[in-house]
Amino acid sequence: MAPLVPFLEDSLIESLLLAVTRVTTLQNKVEKTNATGFFFERDHRLYLVTAKHVLRDEVSNHHPDSLLIELHVDPGNAVRVTRLMIPLFMDGHSLWQAGADSAGDVDVAVVALDRSVLPATLLLKAFTPEHLVTRLDEIEVGTSILIVGFPLGFQDTLHHLPVARQAIVATSFGLRFQGEGYFLTDARMHRGASGAPVVARAASRQSGRAELPWRLLGIHTSRMDVNNRDVEEDERLNLNCAWYADIIMKLTQSPPG
Predict the structure, then answer these.
(1) What is the pTM of this model?
(2) pLDDT at 4
(3) Residue 4: inside a domain, yes or no?
(4) Cα–Cα distance measured from residue 50 to residue 23, given in angstroms and rounded to the nearest whole number
(5) Which of 7-21, 124-138, 227-241 is predicted least confidently?
(6) Cα–Cα distance between 11 and 217 in angstroms, integer?
(7) Using CA atoms, how far apart are residues 98 and 243, in angstroms rounded to an integer?
(8) I want to staple 24 with a disulfide (CB 3.0 to 4.6 A). Which of 53, 68, 132, 205 is the partner?
(9) Considering the chain, what is the average pLDDT of its residues?
(10) Per the domain annotation, does 257 fall within a domain?
(11) Are 170 and 141 in contact (CB under 8 A)?
């Protein structure tokens, strides 16, 4: 009988799940809200991407001063994680970047991560510019997609991994919905998933357990509904806003500072 070949637990975890992290907002060291973020790497710089309203929301008077994210630190043991605190301000200046396009503000923000404070051992995957869609006609209405995050803070509490919700592209990907910088998805979503990556499987259909064989289409931020819905007669539309992921390139085009 051939001897058993040892393997590390990271070989069992799909790379997509390691590109996503749970985000907890803090104000004066008090935990406030839960959300989702994911990692993006460009020119050797590493960023956390999430929804802008996770970092600042004037409507709800939400003004956190720092974040906590969870990082896997042992390739041989998926249970081992650490929580990293990320300040959002220094000397009164914001350490995060948010942007706008021709239609106005975009509900996406990035925070540059200081590699010097990251754990020496780290089990992490990151999207790159190569994961972005370069031709809008690559994606069609009805395309099957995933939205990976932490709805209502739910996760695999043992391995600290997110869950994936199945969805489809609900509007023409080549046309900005109502002129805004987002398209719509059809999926049952919840609070806590704001900032989740919206992805489609890459055409190469490579194994998902090594690199990231996914196209990064957008960033999920909120549910879409109508004002005239009868809450007793009509169910929610289950439509959601996903901001086009190319905004990340604008927000990461130069080092912060």
Answers:
(1) 0.89
(2) 38
(3) no
(4) 9
(5) 227-241
(6) 25
(7) 13
(8) 68
(9) 86
(10) no
(11) yes
- Give the chain's domain count: 1
DSSP for the chain reads -PPPPP--GGGGS-HHHHTEEEEEEEETTEEEEEEEEEEEEETTEEEEEE-HHHH-BTTTTB--SEEEEEEE--TT-TT-EEEEEEESEETTEE-EEEEEETTEEEEEEEEEE-GGGS-SS-B---B-GGGB-S-GGGS-TT-EEEEEE-GGG--BTTTTB-EEEEEEE-S-TTS-GGGSSEEEEE----TT-TT-EEEEE-TT---TTSS--EEEEEEEEEEE--TT--TTT-----EEEEEETTHHHHHTSS---
pLDDT grade for 8, boundaries at 50, 70 and 90: very low
Query: Cβ-count burial of 210 within 10 angstroms (0-12 exposed, 13-18 middle, 19+ buried)?
Result: exposed
Instruction: Give the residue numbers spanning the domain of 125.
Output: 9-251
